[in-house]
Amino acid sequence: MPEAPEPDESVLSFDLTEQPWIGVLQRNGEQEELSLREIFSQAGQVRRITADLPTQEFALTRLLLAVAHDALDGPKDIEHWSRLWNDPRCFDAVAAYLDTHRHRFDLLDRRTPFFQTAELRTAKDEVSSLNRIVADVPNGEPFFSARMPAAGRLSFPEAARWVVHAHAYDTSGIKSGMAGDTRAKGGKVYPLGVGWAGNLGGVFVEGRDLRETLLLNLVAVDTGGLTFTAEDRPAWRREPSGPGGAERTPAGIRDLYTWQSRRLRLHADANGVNGVVLGYGDPLTARNMHTHEPMTAWRRSPAQEKKHGEPLVYLPREHDPARSAWRGLASLIADRAQHQKDSAGVSAYLRPGILDWVARLVTRRALPRGFLVRARITGSVYGTQQSVVDEVVDDQLTMAVALLHEQDREYAQQAIDAVGDAEDAVKALGDLATDLQRAAGSENEGPRLSARDRAFGELEGPYRAWLASLGDADDPLEERARWQAQVHRIVSRLAAQMIADAGDAAWQGRTVPAKQGSVWLNSALADRWFRARLRTCLGQAFPPHLPSPRSGTAELSPKVHP
């Protein structure tokens, strides 16, 4: 049998404007892959992007936003945005735009491959495994068990998605030096940090479909607090990157959303991608980038101010994987007037610029007060000097845009304070767990942590439902009182179960040290202390005309024995 001819790699092509490669969930529940051209033309029928990882979805969303900003050359202001919002065919201009720049969207082009550097090579012509760009977790436990023990080959659609993800979230660590990169020493480039989005506690806004999602995140160029310049353009409208890196400041969000933080080149044949060359690209410091990056909250860093001798430094506020989005609501919706300030009136935190933008839309009545959006939070948690991915954070919080209104802050304040109600009630429950342990003669911290975890889990669903309906309420303070009553019922039920499970030792009790002398502590006294604490933190739930759920029981102070 004659041998099959070798595939002609000179004609390899994968046109991202025409070939399906971005996974989507249609509004009818079906999943499929779409090309760039299709995803914009069908945006109103697409529910959301689906991806291999939540961080990949975030990176792809920013890519689509860069295309939309550039194709629409805006929006220039809220009036321009409103015309787009009210036009079902608002993305029609994208098709012609993609035709114009089609040559820069070919994943396998020999001269200008998409998001890659042509002819990129190391001094020894090494080609790495695709594990370098397929995100995994340490200790040999990849997110994608089907790829154990290595990602030997990727289809062209998969490879395209991971190329976008690598620029956004690639790990740090020592990387191969590229031929021609002056930063290389001994064939290596020492750690320069993770991909740009890896620094962020990523936040974006979701609407009812992808069209609304893209538009809600399409920030107008006249938005205060963000930097836009005439030089702002995405990577495909810049000169192709060489093997080194350029230190510069982003010209705007089109530039930032497509920031080339890596230099890479795929190795492929007619059957797919089988290797990659990967090195460092354009470095970007996270310090004081809040005037450029709208998709993260920010925190003031006194340590960085001292280190760099600067009066004010903000850094991205990363997500805590142990803390659900609803418990961090203040970082999302509190504006500068609501956040804690120092003696000079400087805010300790800044909410994401993307939510400032939505706040502007609702304040200017471009969106109705009752309109619901989902704040999606996404981030990557790195370990071991940022050289591996430990966890990926993905959460969402549905709320009415009224909570972002700039002149009417009462709804937002009650929503934030309601989280405080839950935190205080859970602390009281944790104290009860500790008291029951002490009454039984134990000092184990486990029951306290377990009680807190269970309580937060029980409160999460009710809070999310309460928050989603808050925008429809006439009186947010009255809704807050209803929430406090609900917290009281949930936490009291959990407390009653804990007391019932505490056993005879806790019921009998023992003498324990107190601030003044000692006290005989048993489960009955622990219960009284708990209810006193709960009334202190949730007292607003029971004004004089409303009976306490346990009004027939006296609130007793602890009896102290000298």
Average pLDDT value?
Answer: 91
Counted beta strands: 15
Q: In one word, what is the shape?
A: globular
Query: Oligomer, anyone?
Result: single chain
As residue ranges, the low-confidence spans are: 144-149, 543-562
- How many domains? The number is 2
Describe the strand arrangement of the main beta sheet, using strand numbers: 2-1-3
- Count of helical stretches: 15
Structural class: alpha+beta
Q: Order of helices and strands, N to C? A: EEHEHHHHEEEHHEEEHEHEHEEHHHHEEH
How far do the termini sit from each other? Answer: 101 Å
Output the radius of gyration. 28 Å
Helix content: 25-40%
| Largest β-sheet summary | 3 strands, antiparallel
Beta percentage is: 5-15%
Summarize the structure in words:
With 562 residues, the protein is of the alpha+beta class. The protein has two domains: 115-407, no CATH class; 411-541, Topoisomerase I, Chain A, domain 4. The protein contains 15 helices and 15 strands. It has helices at residues 36-41, 54-72, 78-85, 93-100, 156-169, 210-216, 253-257, 302-308, 329-333, 353-363, 410-439, 446-470, 476-501, 503-508, 523-538, and strands at 22-26, 31-34, 46-49, 175-176, 188-189, 202-206, 262-269, 272-280, 298-300, 314-316, 349-350, 372-383, 388-400, 510-513, 518-521. The strands form six sheets. Strands 2-1-3 form a three-stranded antiparallel sheet. A hairpin with a 4-residue loop joins strand 1 (22-26) and strand 2. Helix 11 (410-439) runs parallel beside helix 13. It is globular, with a radius of gyration of 28 Å. Mean pLDDT is 91; it is low at 144-149 and 543-562.
